[in-house]
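task queued by scheduler; priority normal; single chain, no ligands, no partner chains; default sampling; output format set to structure tokens
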Amino acid sequence: MRGTDPKAIIDHGPMGAAQWLTVLITVGINALDGFDVLSVSFASPGIAKDWGIDKATLGWVLSMELLGMAAGSLLLGGVADKAGRRPTILGCLVAMALGMFGAAGAHGVAGLVPWRLLTGLGIGGTLAAINAVAAEVSNRRSRSFAMGLMVIGYPLGGVIGGIFVQRLLASASWPAVFSAGGWATAAFLPLVWWLVPESVAFLDRRRAVGALEQINSILARLGHAPADTLSEAGAAGARRSIADVLKPGFLATTVLITFGYFAHITSFYFIVKWVPKIVVDLGFAPQAAASVLVWVSLGGAVGGALFGMIATRVGVKSLTLATLFAAALMIVWFGRGASDLASLKTTLAFAGLFTNAGIAGFYMLFAQVFPTHVRATGTGFAIGVGRGGAVVAPIIAGYLFQAGLALQTVALIMACGSLLAAVALLVLRVRDSD
């Protein structure tokens, strides 16, 4: 491979163990995101009972870290494109850990809200950064599969965390859920510090003094031969601007993919955030509610993995469209309710499979439509604005329930998000970016 530029070395070279290790760490970080986001869902029955809050107020509590996540994606995605993927991830992990530990010590809604906002800020930043890392550390042949693996980290965090929380809540109260998440997050700081290198594509595009030497050091660490020169300025994007994602020639793509993500996230977070409370309201115990959410996450993990494997042979856009239609159908089916826990788990496992597969599709589409120099920024913009759907989903559902609407009606309304996302993708033109 000597005599070629860094981008060609990564794109066309083999995937070494160090590259797969980096991908696996992004899986783990996404699992932290999954557990951190779901932690307040696991804790919500206890919070509602201890603090005596109604469903509308609980909807706001469930949305606070999602609001922080939207801000983090919008603000920190740009930081990852300027300062680097690695330092952004490290800083965001610190914010997440502090937010979780702070939430564990909260004594009321007013005390809990700022800590959940801080946690969400860190999560939003990591989502934009690890999406870029997974795409840029992988060769062209393995990129879709690597990103599929990264995406399944979220539901894996829910599965592992849910099993752990079931046992934890048998002997401890809800603050222990946040404490456990804080310690797990803190444990990833040394892993990222020692094992995750800076993105070669980022360094190549940035073209700072000593960039080639730094890139060759990383290439050696990844098991590749050194590059003789940086990519050509045009290919690296030196003359491009971060504002590309909102320029007239690119605006339609940015708006469509962002709206599609927003709409589908609304449906996804209705399931993720309200399932524990709905299950309890159906007459099951809080521990049973946690077990049902585990099945949602287990289905999501399977869905993300299957999507990643199938996407290596089928177009990502077509596959995403199919999963969005299936996700809407399963959410409506969930609204019918169930008389026994086994049926409820099965329905929600399939709902988790298709909704998370849709998320995987959007993440792969982000990597395709946003070029290297704005990949984290564009992804962060789409996630940040799109996470508005995550913010409003629990609130909308809370007010719909508060208005006296039945679960079947609420589920039908919330399923429309995935259908609107499918409409947006039908219009979207997908092209593979550098």
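post-processing summary
- Residues 17-51 form the longest helix (35 residues).
- The CA atoms of residues 192 and 287 lie 33 Å apart.
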